[in-house]
Amino acid sequence: MNDWITWVIQGAIGILIGLLGWLWKQDRKTKDKQLATQDQRIGNLEKKFEQLPFVYTTREDFIRSMTTVEQKLDKIIDRLPPKE
Question: Is this prediction's pTM over 0.90?
């Protein structure tokens, strides 16, 4: 009788371990698919970023150019006739 109970318990534990292993494997497959999709999306974004020009404006350059534009606008405003 004890042998029979031991076999049932061992069988149940074996089935439980097998089920957990199968679930883990399925979860792993899903994660691998998600990672592959993300890798593909990242690769596409990297290609798009490589096509962008590597030109930027520093803050100092922007301030310098805006100062020039403001000076020109001031000159234009000075040439306009006064409002009545």
Answer: no
